[in-house]
Write a structure and sequence with these properties.
By secondary structure, the protein is α+β, with helices and mostly antiparallel strands. It contains 6 helices and 24 strands. The protein has 2 domains: 303 residues, Jelly Rolls (Sandwich), CATH 2.60.120; 103 residues, no CATH class. Strands 2, 4, 6, 8, 9, 10, 11, 12, 14, 16 and 17 form an 11-stranded mixed beta sheet that branches. Strands 1-5-18-7-15-19 form a 6-stranded mixed beta sheet, with no helix packed on it. Strands 20-22-21 form a 3-stranded antiparallel beta sheet. Strand 21 and strand 22 form a beta hairpin. Helix 5 packs across helix 6. The longest helix has 20 residues. This is Formamidase.
């Protein structure tokens, strides 16, 4: 194996619009879907074929398809077209893969493109995407990160430099017709019954759908019935955003259609435990090296109801004293007690972390650094789920390592201050 060059199964063009590249797609659809006509295929066509056990490379655009530029304005983040996101490379036909099997995905390497050694983190405007804390941080903002080997730094967040934990945010196999119908049923039910004043699910969206090389009636079908890739789902994986799916990790995915129809994308240079700002990872375009193997009858043998993964051995390590930990409980910011609510506890721990960064760094209330700095290096744990207690821990690596210093402002063209950074060291000082 070592005597032959690893082939690149899918190549992308960073200078070409993502929606004009047939090896990319933005929706998932099954191999065949029942409708009023006899088994009309609405599949996203295969982009490439790989052998069982083959090692190969896949080029990926960033998740927005190149909508975000390396500049000092947040206008592109504010005005992003969210119907043109999650461009995935694939789907791949894996030889010998059949429904009921398990696809074993070994992530061997992930790297940014040599010609594009940078990425971005963002906060979406509350009226265009929003995020976990959008009622507190309603305005769009972004930071650009430069990559130097395993390290990253940002001119928008001065004095911060740390090793990234590089990984794909999305990987999964296509659903069967029955699973797709179930997704659409249960998500439509959630949308129709929720009392929350926010988006709770993403139904099929025909606007700007990109179905690979499909066109005409086939593309229209995919847009109307294919699943959006924003939410992850237990039956196939998808948008998992797990930072530990890094180099050396192994993911076990259920297969529901012949050939598996595996897709991958949304590469991250680094990410904490979760993306509180929706775009909280360091997003990038790049190349991922994979090995795909088929475990015959694996779903039955493993009694698989959802994906499994083994983390790899590669991860930045900080001593225990490098983490300042903030506790959150099931009591919200209005003083309302909740019963064992993990979301409320997580939110409170996150807010405490952000408030600390803002207070001791003298950041503005809307500062992107509190949000993004916490997102890129934050750890999160749920250590207490017993009796009537629920406690969450949110830890940020590195404490104050230097004095505050105002270095950079960025304003959108409409005059709103999007972020001001008064940054001190965290992780590693320049």
């Amino acid at each position: 194996m070592g005597l032959t060059e690893i082939r690149t199964a899918v190549k992308v063009d960073l200078k070409k619009p993502a929606d004009q590249q047939p090896v990319l797609h933005t929706a998932r659809a099954p191999l065949n879907h029942p409708s009023q006509l006899p088994l009309i295929s609405i599949t996203v066509p295969f982009a490439a074929k790989v052998k069982d056990g083959e090692i190969f490379k896949v080029e990926c655009v960033d998740w927005t398809g190149g909508q975000i530029g390396n500049n000092d304005t947040a206008d592109d983040m504010k005005n992003i077209d969210l119907t043109k996101i999650h461009y995935l490379s694939g789907p791949f036909e894996v030889e010998g893969a059949e429904p009921g099997d398990v696809l074993v995905v070994e992530i061997q390497d992930v790297q940014p493109f040599q010609e594009q050694p940078w990425g971005f983190t963002g906060v979406f405007d509350k009226d265009n995407g929003g995020g976990f804390l959008d009622e507190i941080y309603p305005n769009a903002a972004k930071a650009i990160w430069d990559f130097e080997g395993i390290f990253c730094s940002s001119r928008h967040i001065p004095h911060l430099r740390f090793p990234g934990l590089i990984h794909p945010g999305i990987l999964g196999c296509a659903p069967s017709a029955e699973i797709l119908a179930e997704w659409n049923r249960r998500e439509a039910h959630l949308i129709s019954t929720t009392e929350l004043k926010r988006i709770v699910a993403q139904p099929p969206q025909p606007q700007n759908v990109h179905a690979g090389s499909a066109s005409g009636e086939l593309k229209e079908k995919v847009g109307k019935e294919g699943a959006r890739t924003i939410p992850g789902r237990p039956e196939h994986g998808g948008n998992c955003d797990i930072k530990n799916l890094s180099r050396g990790s192994k993911v076990f995915l259920p297969i529901h259609v012949p050939g598996a129809k595996f897709s991958v994308g949304d590469l991250h240079f680094s990410q904490g435990d979760g993306e509180i700002s929706f775009c909280g990872a360091i997003e990038m375009a790049g190349v991922i090296t994979l090995k795909l193997s088929v475990m015959k009858s694996g779903m039955k043998d493993l009694d698989m109801k959802s994906p499994l993964f083994l983390p790899g051995p590669v991860e930045p390590h900080y001593g225990p004293s490098r983490y300042l930990t903030f506790e959150g409980f099931s009591v919200d910011e209005k003083g309302v007690q909740h019963y064992m609510d993990a979301t409320v506890a997580y939110r409170q721990a996150t807010l405490r972390c952000i408030e600390y960064l803002r207070r001791y760094g003298e950041y503005t209330r809307g500062g992107v650094w509190e949000n993004e700095g916490a997102d890129c290096v934050r750890l999160f744990r749920l250590p207490g789920l017993s009796d009537v207690k629920l406690r969450a821990y949110s830890g940020t690596c590195g404490g104050p390592g230097g004095y505050p210093e105002r270095l950079h402002d960025a304003r959108t063209s409409d005059g709103y201050l999007r972020f001001r950074h008064l940054a001190y060291g965290a992780g590693e000082e320049d």
